[in-house]
Design brief:
alpha/beta; 5-stranded mixed β-sheet; 3-stranded antiparallel β-sheet; 8 helices; RNase_H_bac
Length: about 210
Amino acid sequence: MAKKKFYVIWKGTKTGVFTSWEACKKNITNFKGAQYKSFSSKDEAEKAFKETYDVYKGKDTKRVALSNEELTLIGKPIMPSISVDAACSGNPGKMEYRGVDTESKKQLFIQGPFEKGTNNIGEFLALVHGLGFLKQRNLTYPIYSDSKIAINWVKKGQCRTNLPITEENKPLFDFVKRAEKWLKENTYTTKILKWETKAWGEIPADFGRK
């Protein structure tokens, strides 16, 4: 059984909180500049309607809110730490990745854009770049990523993508080979941790293009 959603319309034929997609669609179709979002609970939707669309633009508002007990169990991110993320326009498409200080969100490194890449490859490269960044500075901060796939690839020491190599993405795959070589030749004590998006929101390194 699908979970019920609630829809907020800030700009439309009618505005407010609606309890069905049909009602929402009716009031945004053919309305130029319509502003709307779906939410997982009525309380969240009513709270959002009292604020502006810009507060929620680009954010994932469909996640079910965690209970206080679940939030306590998860805890808070470890500080200091690095957070990494990648962004890809298309699949494959132009891809870039970066790492930031988790607390201040200060950008520590960025690479790209690379042609004909994928988000998973970017997440993998970002993690390896972060490992090298920390080792070079003799730091042992943990690294956060919201990609289980990339974390698994790094632990296995190999980027297990099925993306074929072409003339366009050869420079990207050269980067991948360098990353795999680094993992093979280096040891590290840095902990690679999964970013708990449901509890903490978007990872600080997020490019904000959702």
